[in-house]
UniProtKB/TrEMBL annotation:
InterPro entries: Beta-barrel_TonB, Beta-barrel_TonB_sf, Plug_dom, Plug_dom_sf, TonB_rcpt_bac. It is found in: Cell outer membrane. Residues 77-182 form the TonB-dependent receptor plug domain. The keyword Membrane applies. The keyword DNA-binding does not apply. Residues 39-57 have a biased composition (Polar residues). Pfam families: Plug, TonB_dep_Rec_b-barrel. The lineage of its organism: Bacteria, Pseudomonadati, Pseudomonadota, Alphaproteobacteria, Sphingomonadales. Residues 34-57 are annotated as: Disordered. This is TonB-dependent receptor.
């Protein structure tokens, strides 16, 4: 386990020593909590502050630099109610970090997940992205992501990588529940605020141009452009306001990875296919009977090149015909197009003639694992290429009408129509892969004693892996995923200022949300892993060798003796076209059906979910004296009623095929079955906040609330879906449950804050969450659709009787092809003879028959368990200004504890519940702001966390990153700046039950940028 170590502390020291070139976010806390009585957006009605004075906090961006922003954050935190933190823009068009998620991680209790070197998802107080609700100006936002591209998308997690930071005024994190805040986030509600033209009258704006240099780039020009601008003006005596903003960002980078795939975990006493053979003498320190261990199934090196293009834009029109009435119309657009090209070399294990050494239990991990092969087995080393090219587009059109009525009443009507859509950008699909192989491997080994899994491969004499003429085309897969989320929402909210001696104000409102989701998926695949044709079918000059060790600089073990040193680059599109022209890979695949003239698979799974939620709320705000000291209570309740309609078109299997020695496939016909399920639930969500100032400049707070998080879309799906490629002994599938009710949490928060200077404070907070209705998965072994297993039955038994019990699967298949031709579909040469794969066995399909045994499928189905979990923790923060020197610091540390943790010592048959993302986190910030020069440094650290797996866990190891920037306003309004991300090039790594069970190891590289900004 890697923790907050001496190495981490050394990076803090390094951050201090490099202050002149460093960067950190300008952390600011959110608006006065009294201004959040309605939705936390700019269209919100406002109430008096906690001091009983009219609320003066608006959505204006801060225009006077770091120190003024921090001073305002102290005032907001001090005067606010509950626990609300935020990051604010320092100037119009100038956000502290290049990515919203990167900025959010500076907040106490917030940590992020990165993808391709950029922040993507947010975890708050140990609750991962699916437990946090994201709104835009107080409106619930749709989200679309295709996930791994290998199944129908299902996530509610908001992808912050879609949004550029330049058009954002602030991002607010509501950690405690409020009756006036939309439901859906147990971890938090995160509100993204965009600027409004009438927030600050007059004409203003900015434009920035910069170049980005990414040192991770494997090849090609690593410098890419970014341009952003915002313009805001008011007209007709500030009765009309117009704001437009836009950003264009291009990034080219690489994210190389060494990975290991594991099969199921086993007990040392088990003896099944895939376990360590009980009688083998070639196992050192064999796992004991009750030890849990896992055997590697595959290992690979991937050189991954990324091309990302992000475009954002917003237009806002405001009209204020009279002082008491404001109308706003706004449109927000974002697109994020990502193309990922992956060149890979890898090995697969067959669990036959093996040698290995293991650590001590109770979690025995491999030190090395070797497998040997006979020459006639013709074992292969794979060389594959993959293309993932998708685009996500978000659109939101909204309107707001706010009326300050007589008698202290304010009424706001707000509505929006928003969509998010993700789909592929090419004619091959969302996630595609094509394979090659060189046959003749004598042995293969993975060494697990380093941070980097060392893959070694030995070939039989006469086999040279550097000879491109030996590269043989094998299998391929073209996956096509689609996701669309549409939200229509209307909100009516009111506010009454009473300003009495006890009753200060009342807020009330009503919200209607219609959320419509479509998730679709299909694939075509050729399971010809033994070879689809001869090596001569693909020209040698399409392949270009690329070295591996130098692409993993700084990773322990990457330069080890014996590491396989190279792979082959090739153009995916050209190669896929060759497969189509030579072998009809797309027009006549073994599995699936493509759209005419493309490799885009028809959708075989098409799921639709509609949620309709009505939510009235009321909230009362009070002020009073407690023992002569000012105190406040905000109390309210929100009622949520949700109806769920889940429909699905799922493919109906028609049979199964045995397509190669270890490969099986399910046949899906053109028939689909339509299923529809319904569900409903309701929740009463109370919330109360209290604060008192017992002595001058010290504030104590307490909050209690109920919050919910809804199930992911995959869990709510209708219909039974089977995975298309079952194993020889078992297939898998899943079935949703629209009757699931949300997770529900009962929350307690306490905090103490001491404000000892205009820009300085110390705070300590404690939180406790009791969560119920956790969604668990039950597994049921059953048959499905009367599917039969072709590797059973009379044909298989006759082959074993004729060939002997030790016969290999390839020989058994040949026997069935020869003796039972009526139930086989062999591939034939032009002369009518059998086609044979690279191992010399007959190529083709063996079809299932009614005499074969029923195929067993392990079906996953979610349910609300009676399991409860307690998550609790501490948040420590200090913000300190070093008098008039211009220097200052922000330090925070979050401790998260809980009983929802995975027990690594339990066997794989035990279904466990654990909360993803649970980890400690810390931030250290140094800044300088004086005489037009700003310099910032931010070091962010996150502890190791559980990343998923109900039966076999995965973990992402502790990670720390130092970011840096500096700017100089050398003439009024004109600033030059430089930035650095991951300045020390920190690497990332993940594992299973112990460190030796490495699942990925990725090098880290710095990213630099520089440019100029003009503000007016």
């Amino acid at each position: 386990m890697r923790g907050f170590s001496a190495r981490s502390i050394s990076h803090l020291v390094l951050g201090a020593s490099t202050l002149a070139i460093c960067a950190v976010s300008g952390t600011a806390h959110a608006q006065d909590a009294a201004a959040t009585v309605g939705n936390p957006g700019t269209s919100e009605t406002t109430t008096p502050s906690s001091q009983g004075e009219p609320n003066q906090v608006t959505d204006d961006v801060v225009v006077t630099g770091i120190r003024a922003s921090l001073r305002e954050s102290v005032d907001i935190k001090r005067d606010g109610q509950g626990v609300v933190d935020a990051i604010s823009a320092e100037d119009i068009g100038k956000f502290p970090d290049t990515n919203l998620a990167e900025s959010l991680q500076r907040i106490t209790g917030v940590s992020i997940d990165r993808s391709n070197g950029e922040g993507q998802f947010v975890t708050v107080r140990g609750f991962g992205p699916e437990y946090n609700l994201v709104t835009l100006n107080g409106r619930q936002m749709p989200t679309a992501t295709l996930g791994d591209g290998a199944s129908a998308p299902a996530s509610r997690s908001f992808d912050f990588a879609n949004l550029a930071s330049e058009g954002i005024a602030a991002v607010e994190v509501y950690k405690t529940g409020r009756a006036a805040v939309p439901s859906g986030g147990i971890g938090s509600t995160i509100n993204i605020r965009t600027p409004r033209p009438l927030d600050k009258a007059g004409t203003r704006g900015s434009i920035a141009v910069k170049g980005v240099y990414d040192s991770s780039r494997n090849e090609g020009d690593p410098i890419t452009p970014e341009v952003s601008g915002v313009f805001s003006t008011s007209l007709l005596d500030d009765r009309v306001g117009l704001l437009v903003s836009g950003a264009y960002q291009r990034r080219k980078a690489s994210n190389n990875s060494a990975s290991v795939g594991f099969s199921n975990s086993w007990l040392g006493s088990e003896n099944s296919w895939g376990t360590l053979p009980q009688s083998s003498p070639n196992i050192t320190n064999r796992p004991e009977a009750n030890d849990v261990y896992e055997v590697p199934q595959s290992a690979a090196y991937d050189l991954i090149d990324i091309d990302r293009e992000r475009i954002n834009g917003q237009a806002v029109l405001q009209f204020k015909p009279i002082d008491s009435l404001t109308a706003t119309v706004d449109y927000t657009y974002s697109s994020n197009k990502v193309e990922v090209r992956d060149q890979s070399t890898g090995i697969w294990f067959n669990f036959n003639d093996t040698s290995s050494a293991w650590t001590d239990g109770p979690n025995a991990a491999p030190l090395f694992y070797t497998e040997r092969f006979r020459a006639d087995e013709r074992k292969d080393l794979s060389f594959s290429g993959a293309l993932t090219a998708n685009k996500t587009v978000n659109k939101s059109l909204g309107g707001n009408l706010t009326w300050d009525a007589p008698g202290g009443v304010t009424v706001s009507l707000d509505a929006h129509h928003s969509t998010a859509e993700s789909k592929p950008t090419n004619r091959y699909g969302s996630s595609t892969s094509v394979g090659n192989a060189i046959f003749g491997v004598r042995s293969q080994t993975v060494d697990f004693t380093k941070d980097f899994p060392v893959i070694s491969v030995d070939f039989y004499p006469g086999i040279d892996p550097s000879s491109r003429a030996l590269l043989t085309p094998t299998g391929d897969s073209f996956r096509n995923a689609y996701f669309r989320d549409e939200i229509n929402q209307a909100q009516l909210k009111g506010h009454y200022d009473h300003e009495g001696s006890f009753l200060d104000s009342i807020d009330w409102g009503f919200s209607y949300v219609e959320n419509k989701v479509r998730s679709a998926y299909g694939f075509i695949q050729n399971d010809t892993w033994g070879g689809i044709g001869p090596a001569s079918a693909i020209p040698d000059d399409i392949f270009t060798p690329a070295t591996i060790p130098d692409k993993f600089k700084g990773v322990n073990g990457a330069n080890s003796q014996g590491v396989f040193p190279f792979l082959y680059n090739f153009n995916f599109e050209n190669y896929a076209d060759l497969l189509q022209s030579n072998f009809a890979a797309c027009s006549r695949p073994q599995s699936g059906v493509a759209q005419p003239g493309t490799c885009l698979a028809n959708y075989t799974t098409d799921r639709r979910i509609k949620e309709q939620t009505i939510s009235p709320f009321v909230q009362v705000n009070t002020k009073f004296d407690l023992f002569g000291r000012s105190a406040h209570i905000i109390g309210g309740v929100r009622y949520d009623q949700t109806n769920v309609d889940s429909a699905a078109l799922v493919p109906v299997p028609t049979g199964t095929r045995w397509v190669s020695s270890n490969e099986f496939a399910i046949n899906f016909g053109n028939e689909t079955t339509f299923t529809r399920f319904k569900g409903s639930y309701e929740n009463w969500l109370p919330a109360i906040d209290f604060d008192v100032e017992p002595v001058r400049n010290v504030k104590l707070r307490a909050s209690y609330s109920h919050t919910i998080t809804r199930a992911d879309y995959g869990s709510l799906q209708g219909g039974l879906t089977l995975a298309s490629n079952p194993r020889i002994d078992q297939g898998t599938g899943s079935q949703g449950n629209p009757g699931l009710v949300p997770y529900k949490s009962k929350n307690l928060d306490f905090s103490a804050e001491w404000y000892y200077g205009p820009e300085s404070y110390i705070s300590v907070g404690y939180f406790n969450k009791d969560v119920e209705n956790f969604i668990s998965t039950t597994q049921v072994d059953r048959s499905a659709f009367d599917l039969r297993n072709p590797a059973t039955g009379p044909r298989y038994q006759a082959a074993v009787a004729a060939l002997g019990a030790g016969a290999g699967l390839g020989a058994i298949r040949d026997y069935i092809f020869t003796n039972f031709p009526a139930s086989t579909v062999p591939q034939r040469n032009d002369d009518g003879t059998f086609k044979r794969d690279a191992n010399g066995f007959i190529s083709g399909d063996i079809l299932s028959t009614p005499q074969d045994a029923l195929y067993n499928f392990r079906i996953d189905q979610p349910f609300n368990s009676d399991r409860t979990a307690n998550i609790n923790g501490w948040e420590f923060a200090i913000q300190h200004r070093f008098w008039e020197t211009g220097f200052g610091t922000i330090l925070n540390y979050t401790i998260v504890n809980g009983d929802a943790k995975f027990n690594n010592t339990l066997p794989t048959t035990t279904n466990q519940f654990a909360l993803t993302g649970l980890s400690d986190s810390a931030n250290a910030v140094l800044y300088y702001d004086k005489n037009g020069f700003q310099a910032r440094a931010a070091y962010n650290w996150r502890g190791e966390f559980y990343n998923g797996g109900s039966f076999d866990p995965t973990y992402v190891e502790a990670y720390g990153q130092l970011d840096a920037s500096a700017s100089w306003e050398f003439t009024r309004g004109l600033t030059v700046f430089a930035e650095a991300i991951n300045l020390t090039g920190e690497a990332r790594r993940g594992h299973r039950r112990t460190d030796n069970f490495v699942i990925f190891s990725q090098p880290g590289y710095a990213r630099y940028s520089g440019g100029v900004r003009f503000t007016f």
